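Section 5: illustrative case.
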């Protein structure tokens, strides 16, 4: 861990439990103790494991299904199935319940919602990465970007999937003040942080 980043190898993160996630194991990937203003978890959910959260008006959630299949119920409404590549962004005004319909792994991010005057609260956003058209990034067809959350001011965070063909990378040194995490979905690569 350095002052501006932390590199956490997955095999070194012990499994933990969360009271509202019955039967699931949680691994904390990012948290305020590391300086982040969000918490990111990797949830391992055997079939039947479930999690729920009542609306508190403060915390928004993002889910991305890495493997398996879960059902998501928002505000006690219709159940929706999220399969591999499925995602959901839930506003802090939404109650939810998630149940694993088969063994699943899910990335979960939760953070305080940041209201901006004159911008309405977003509605739940549900989709699958297969429905999000990739765009060529900075003119390089070997670097493609999928915006899972649209680039719209009603959303106070971004979730993207970058796909790089072998030998391709960002064309610039990325320098910014906004915090972010990185999770490799597949493959391997080199990620430079500061001078390392």
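Designed sequence:
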């Amino acid at each position: 861990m350095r002052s501006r980043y932390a590199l956490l190898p997955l095999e070194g993160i012990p499994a933990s439990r969360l009271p509202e996630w019955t039967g699931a194991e949680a691994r904390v990937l990012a948290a305020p103790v590391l300086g982040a203003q969000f918490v990111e978890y990797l949830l391992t959910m055997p079939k039947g494991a479930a999690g729920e959260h009542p609306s508190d008006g403060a915390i928004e959630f993002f889910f991305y299904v890495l493997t398996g299949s879960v059902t998501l119920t928002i505000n006690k409404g219709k159940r929706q199935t999220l399969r591999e590549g499925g995602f959901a962004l839930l506003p802090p005004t939404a109650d939810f319940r998630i149940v694993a319909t088969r063994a699943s792994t899910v990335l979960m991010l939760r953070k305080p919602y940041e209201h901006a005057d004159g911008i309405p609260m977003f509605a739940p956003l549900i989709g699958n990465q297969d429905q999000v058209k990739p765009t060529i990034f900075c003119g390089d067809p070997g670097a493609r970007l999928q915006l899972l959350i649209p680039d719209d001011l009603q959303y106070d965070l971004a979730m993207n999937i970058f796909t790089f063909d072998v030998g391709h990378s960002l064309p610039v040194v990325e320098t910014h003040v906004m915090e972010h995490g990185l999770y490799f979905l597949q493959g391997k690569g080199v990620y430079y942080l500061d001078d390392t």
